[in-house]
């Protein structure tokens, strides 16, 4: 079928057939080709049918081929054949007549039937072919699936048998139905031996009940899977730790049929974790618990409200000398030996002993019985009295111990440790080789002292220090000959503080130098102002110098600058120093004191009689005044004739050396009378005036203070 137009057949009749036929087939769902292709196809089919009708006899085979070609052309949907039959019934007779058929009315139905027969025969053949193709595809697919299943099963068995982790399968009664070599070997069995076991045989005696409950939940279908860390007992008896994942297998109806366990040997990893944890919580040298473990246990004790804890904090005395003289290896060996003793005599009593670092150890006693901490401290001191042999050295060692006991509701872990540390150093300061018990009041005093030392310099910068003055009175006529400058600290939180509360701290911290410089300058300013207004008064100002000031290399320059700046004559400045401040190494006078005396500054020995009172140094010092300590004056309170023999002797000695004598701490008229009778030159004390600010004291300076005023 070429589809070309044959001019021997009238075109109008063929065109009508083609148009009607195309009209049916152009509906949606019929057309597997374009409009042009369809028109060309139908025109060719119509011409072949016309030739078949005109042939003698009628060419029914050609008509069948036309029917088959319709199927070949892809026009085989359900409505194609009925539409074709209807079109041919309407238009085939005129086409046959036009083609010259002898009997068109008979020919057309035969042609129509042949087309139908060819269409149906080709359609049946097509269906058979498609069915055969489908069958072959199904066979091929089935073979592929079976092959894939066999390959998958082979891979599964290979993986199961050769897996690096243990895999076991058990039925719902706990019988082991399959196991791989890794699981069996992990526990010391062959595969056949392992299959004869049950899940119950693998339960470790110390397994937590929760782990067995998890397995029951899986067997009963309450859980699909679970992952736990589980111990198994090896055939030779030791424990094997595993990371175990257990899962439930159900059949097609959802009924549980098997449990699958996958176990990875975690023994090495767990042993490593335990070693690392032990190393993290134990001292590598002594193997005792370390600070971290101690803090953990202490925190646990404090987590129980109402409980009571005790701590013994100990430090080896003079351990640094062992390291320095014998070497650190000997020092380490000594620490190990001490740790063993502590472990033997303390741990056996049920208490935790830990090394905090260096040569410090601490003992934690939870709910200590009455007297337990004292027994522990005494035991440790007694144990350490015996010499310890380290290599070829026999070392005598002792310890100082701080003991604290309190309820956890009263403090915190950090505070109780701090209290124990503080108490330890109390024991050291009291002579070592002893223990001390924590004293809250003493600690409060120490805390106050620390607060003062930390705030001294800031207080100086904030101008918190005030200078007060006390008159020094001529005993013969009551005339005020000088004033002593006394510093006071107006602390913002602790209030007004006297010198004995902070001067020693100022010396320790070095703050005494700038503080003394300020007091010196102010005292010189006051003295210069008064003497400028009262030239005949010759009022001197007396300023105390601490030991650290006396040894300060800038002392002479500081005094010279103060005198030059204020205009006070040097002879009207008196510097008071204790015996220890006046003397340098080998009992020689401090060079600065000699230089100051050469400038004309008066030098006074303060609190004479309270130190070593070595009278031999007095002639070697450039002194002007000797101030008798108040302890001597205290004995003169009772009325009597003359001074006390000791006081009288000291006054006579001072006068023999050409020194002026001032008595300190004169509070009663009887004391003043006896001192005057003993030829003492001047006196100061509450009898005349308490220390006061310059403005409050200045009205006394131009008066004579009669005895008893």
Structure description:
- There is one protein chain.
- The strands form four sheets. This protein has an eight-stranded mixed barrel with strand order 13-14-16-17-18-19-20-21.
- It contains 25 helices and 21 strands.
- 48% of the residues lie in helices and 19% in strands.
- The protein has 709 residues and is an alpha/beta fold.
Helices and strands in order:
Layout: H1 11-25, H2 35-54, H3 60-72, H4 80-99, H5 104-162, E1 166-171, E2 176-179, H6 181-186, H7 191-195, H8 209-219, E3 225-233, E4 239-250, E5 256-265, H9 267-281, H10 291-302, E6 308-316, H11 319-326, H12 328-345, E7 352-357, E8 360-366, H13 372-383, E9 388-390, E10 393-395, E11 399-407, H14 413-429, E12 435-437, H15 440-461, E13 465-474, E14 480-491, E15 495-497, H16 503-509, H17 512-533, E16 540-544, H18 547-550, H19 555-566, E17 573-577, H20 579-582, H21 591-599, E18 602-608, E19 625-628, H22 630-634, H23 645-656, E20 660-663, H24 669-677, E21 682-683, H25 694-697
Helix pairs in contact: 1-2, 1-4, 2-3, 2-4, 3-5, 4-5, 11-12, 15-16, 17-19
What is the mean pLDDT?
A: 85
Q: Termini distance?
A: 158 Å
Structural class: alpha/beta
Which spans of ≥5 residues are poorly predicted at pLDDT below 50?
1-7
Give the percentage of residues in beta strands: 15-25%
| Helical coverage, percent range | 40-55%
Outline type = elongated
Nearest-angstrom radius of gyration?
Answer: 59 Å
Number of strands: 21
* Spatial arrangement of strands, main beta sheet: 13-14-16-17-18-19-20-21
Main sheet summary: 8 strands, mixed, barrel
Count the DSSP helices: 25
């Amino acid at each position: 079928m070429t589809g070309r137009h044959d001019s021997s057949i009238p075109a109008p009749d063929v065109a009508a057939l083609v148009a009607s036929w195309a009209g049916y087939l152009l509906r949606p769902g019929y057309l597997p080709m374009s409009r042009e292709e369809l028109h060309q196809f139908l025109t060719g089919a119509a011409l072949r049918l016309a030739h078949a009708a005109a042939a003698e006899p009628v060419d029914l085979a050609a008509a069948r081929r036309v029917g088959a070609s319709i199927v070949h052309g892809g026009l085989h949907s359900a409505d194609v054949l009925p539409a074709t039959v209807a079109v041919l019934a309407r238009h085939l007779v005129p086409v046959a007549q036009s083609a010259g058929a002898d009997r068109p009315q008979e020919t057309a139905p035969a042609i129509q039937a042949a087309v139908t027969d060819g269409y149906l025969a080709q359609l049946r053949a097509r269906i058979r072919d498609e069915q055969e193709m489908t069958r072959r595809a199904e066979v091929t697919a089935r073979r592929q699936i079976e092959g894939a299943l066999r390959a998958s099963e082979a891979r599964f068995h290979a993986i199961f048998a050769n897996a690096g982790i243990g895999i076991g399968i058990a039925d719902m009664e706990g019988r082991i139905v399959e196991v791989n070599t890794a699981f069996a070997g992990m526990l010391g069995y062959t595969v056949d031996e392992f299959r004869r076991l049950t899940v119950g045989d693998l339960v470790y005696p110390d397994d937590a009940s929760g782990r067995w409950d998890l397995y029951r939940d899986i067997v009963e279908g309450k859980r699909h899977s679970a992952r736990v860390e589980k111990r198994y007992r090896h055939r030779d008896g030791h424990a094997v730790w595993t990371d175990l994942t257990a899962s439930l297998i159900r059949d097609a109806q959802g009924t549980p049929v098997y449990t699958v366990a996958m176990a990875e040997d975690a023994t090495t990893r767990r042993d490593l974790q335990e070693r690392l944890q032990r190393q993290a919580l134990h001292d590598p040298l002594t193997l005792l618990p370390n600070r971290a473990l101690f803090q953990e246990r202490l925190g646990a004790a404090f987590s129980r409200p109402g409980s009571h804890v005790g701590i013994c904090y100990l430090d080896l005395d003079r351990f640094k000398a062992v390291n320095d003289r014998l070497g650190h290896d000997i020092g380490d060996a000594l620490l190990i030996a001490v740790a063993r003793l502590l472990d033997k005599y303390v741990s056996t009593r049920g208490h935790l002993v830990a090394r905090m670092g260096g040569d410090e150890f601490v003992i934690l006693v939870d709910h200590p019985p009455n007297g337990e901490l004292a027994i522990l401290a005494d035991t440790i001191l007694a144990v350490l009295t015996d010499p310890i042999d380290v290599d070829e050295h026999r070392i005598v060692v002792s310890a100082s111990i701080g003991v604290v006991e309190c309820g956890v509701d009263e403090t915190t872990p950090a505070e109780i440790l701090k209290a124990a540390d503080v108490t330890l150093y109390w024991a050291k300061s009291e002579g070592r080789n002893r223990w001390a018990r924590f004293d809250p009041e003493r600690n409060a005093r120490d805390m106050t002292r620390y607060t003062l030392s930390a705030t001294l310099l800031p207080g100086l910068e904030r101008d918190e220090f005030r200078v007060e003055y006390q008159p020094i009175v001529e005993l013969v006529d009551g005339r005020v000959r000088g004033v002593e400058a006394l510093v006071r600290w107006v602390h913002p939180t602790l209030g007004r503080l006297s010198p004995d509360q902070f001067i020693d701290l100022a010396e320790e911290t070095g703050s005494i130098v700038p503080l003394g410089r300020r007091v010196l300058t102010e005292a010189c300013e006051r003295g210069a102002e008064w003497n400028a207004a009262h030239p005949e008064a010759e009022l001197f100002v007396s300023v105390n110098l601490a030991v650290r000031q006396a040894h300060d290399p800038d002392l002479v320059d500081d005094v010279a600058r103060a005198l030059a700046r204020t205009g006070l004559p040097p002879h009207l400045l008196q510097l008071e120093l204790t015996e220890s401040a006046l003397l340098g190494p080998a009992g020689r006078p401090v060079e600065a004191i000699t230089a100051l005396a050469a400038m004309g500054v008066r030098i006074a020995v303060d609190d004479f009689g309270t130190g070593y009172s070595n009278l031999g140094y007095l002639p070697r010092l450039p002194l002007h005044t000797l101030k008798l300590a108040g302890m001597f004056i205290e004995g003169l309170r009772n009325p009597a004739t003359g001074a006390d023999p000791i006081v009288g002797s000291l006054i006579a000695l001072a006068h023999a050396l050409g020194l002026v004598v001032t008595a300190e701490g004169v509070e009663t008229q009887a004391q003043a009378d006896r001192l005057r009778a003993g030829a003492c030159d001047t006196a100061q004390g509450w009898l005349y005036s308490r220390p006061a600010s310059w403005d409050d004291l200045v009205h006394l300076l131009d008066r004579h203070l009669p005895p008893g005023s």
